[in-house]
Amino acid sequence: PLSRLTDLKHIDELKRIKRSISTELRELESRRNHIQDDISLQQGRYIALEQSVKKAEGEVQFLKSRIQQLKTEQKEVEKPKLAAPARLLASEDLNVDLTPTSLHYKCQMHSCFDYSRCSLTSQFPVYVYPLNTDNSPFDVTSFVQEAIRISFSTNRYITNDPSTACLYVVVVGEVEASAGVDSKPVISPDAISSWLRSLAYWRGDGRNHLLVYFSHQTTTQNPLKGVDTGRAIVGQTNFEASQFRMGFDAVLPNLPSFKTSKLMKVTFINAIDKIIIFLFENYYVPALRDYALSFQGQWPSNYHAEADGDAALPPDSEFHQILLENMNLMRESVIHGNFMLQVQCQEERIVTPGFSSEWSLCGSEGDRLAVLSRSTFALILPAEDRNLLFTPLFSTRLIEALQSGAIPVLLGTHTRLPFSEFISWEKAAIILPQARVTELPFLLSNIPHAEIISMRRQGRFLYDTYLSTPPQVVESTLALLRTRLQIPALPVEDVPSNVIPHRSYPVVEHVVSPGDAQSEFGIPPIEESTSSPQFTRNYTSVTLDSRDTWNNIPGPFNLYPFTPKDRLLPSDAQFIGSSNGFRPIGGGEGGTGKVYQESLGGNSPWEQFTMVMLTYKREEVLLQAVERLIGLPHLNKIIVVWNSPEPPGAELRWPDVGVKVVVIHPEKNSLNNRFLPWSEINTEAVLSIDDDAHLRHDEILFGFRVWRESRHRVVGFPGRFHAWDPRHGGWSYNSNHTCELSMVLTGAAFLHKYYLYLYSNWMPPAVRAIVDQHMNCEDIAMNFLVSHVTRQSPVKVTSRWTFRCPGCPVALSQSQEHFDERHLCINAFVKIFGYMPLVYTQLRVDSILFKTRLPHDKQKCFKFI
Fold first, then answer.
1. Which residues are catalytic?
2. Is the pLDDT of residue 88 over 60?
3. Any transmembrane segments, and where (predicted)?
């Protein structure tokens, strides 16, 4: 019993110890929990402090970058650009004494033109004398009157204030001679001279006057021959060598009829396959046509000597005899192709004579064009009287050849061609000395097909731009003198933006997605909204680039704020003397990752881009698309083209994304609105994008960087190509995955604002009409245009081929009907442009370090592309 009592006491002691230990353990657990809570609290504070430190470090680094950026901007502000000078106009009493000259036929611009009336900033005001005044010896025909009225009524240089005019235009009436152009003048030179001296602003010697003699017929005389024109410039079609003053007078083409220009203004409302496109559907291919060389003419009948029964022969003309012999040889030989050479007009065909020393025209205009449209080359023989530099008949042959796509072959280098002071005719015509007549077949047969099509294309450009309509001839005449005076053209006009006011709301919780600027290596410093420099090449366009401007699309008639062809500075100029605007990567030392992202670098000064977003009745999708742009660097503004019939409601609120959002409501719902040169676009770079095109920030930024190196091309994401249909002999639109493409969809593409001007103002209106008719194909049209102008392919960036928009309504573009219409569009556009301008490419562009293995301590250019 005693032992049991001892055991019970021991058990009680153990229980007490257990209770004590349990209590102590609970206390320790409580203390541990308190300590753990304290540790967690301290860890949370530490993490918060660490995040605060990182944020502060980021802000400090951001502020340092911002300070550095502001210092750079301050330096650039200290070197301000010159403001546009004031417009200087002449006054009525301004009459500068010029060096006296009694030899008006020796006039040059420096000796006979009063430059004081034509300041470089005058904008070239032109005063036109009234037609058919009481004392005028000329009777201006109704056709010329109508042509002049239409041409000058829409010309922006015309002024009604003669006291401020730089140039005074006197229209000389068309003088036809029933007895032939070689006959005695219908109007005496003395009568014309007396009339000129009586003009109100002649000022004694005719300075700053342009005497324009527009020929419409091939039988018109040269009424200004032998006339004392003083210091006036003469512009006409009939010119003799003894009369023409090189660098002073102007050789003009015939004044064409209005039928072509009227047809160009047809309203295109029919189905695509029934659209009338041009009076002559001029195809550039095939390069070789039915006739290698064609000529139709008849030697004037006033020469009676016969030569093998083919044509009358002028006496003592060795060249004429050799010409006829070689034409016979070419006609009989098939070695170098089929030559269609007629030296005698067919019976019952109209014979239109010119001067007695030049070949007459055979048949009607339609007859001649039917032959020329089947000819690769067209032989054009100037008057054999070398004193005749240019004639109306010669002009007719030249214009008809260009119009039909037959490359002119001019046999004679003594001629002067229209506007040759600035037009490089050798790019559109083959000009040979007469001594080469025996080698003509050999030469023509050795011209490559690509060169033939290039010359044909250039010839068509010259015809459409300078020769096709009376307004074009008149405007080209004034442009020639304006360029000679080195006065820039008037600026091209933007489309006014009908801006709809709206309210915005701050985005409180913005979800950062992979590829956004915040998720990359570092956010670039805040950028002030900055417009691209405009009109910096006003005067080099009419000096350094005058011939280039005249010989390339779109011509010299408008001054553009910027073009994609601006010259690049060498790399060292960014650091020595020309650093304004440049942001070299790493200050010139280069870099990757964060350093790369902070600067645009490249070969061009720092700039921004404008986003143009087309939308139609999809407010929710649109607002989501706008919100995704928060924090996007280099974005100047967002322009929303609201294509819906009704403007956005006043209750619609837009997310504040840090840049200006401009909502434009166009006059009508048209896909062409995507490419209007809106006045709100102040940057060269334009990102054309659909509201359902979901692009990450890094994709946009990379596309922008690529575009900066290929400013003259379309740079974008989804690629497509044109495929040949061997069964039906036409083109089809293809969206399959392929290793070759020729188009980049403008639902997500960068392009230069310059192309918006060309699309809206220069491109044939038939193209835009087809786009409106089908509410489709505007992206194909833009690709056609840019490839036609540049003869280069678009640039595809990244691997993206399509866009996915979760939650978006099914787009119209997904329907089979929409897809089928694109086949029709391509073939219709080919007819309008005259050939297939799209160019294939077999490559795409990715960032330099994409898929490159790097050490763990190195960064790529972008994380995901």
1. 779
2. yes
3. none
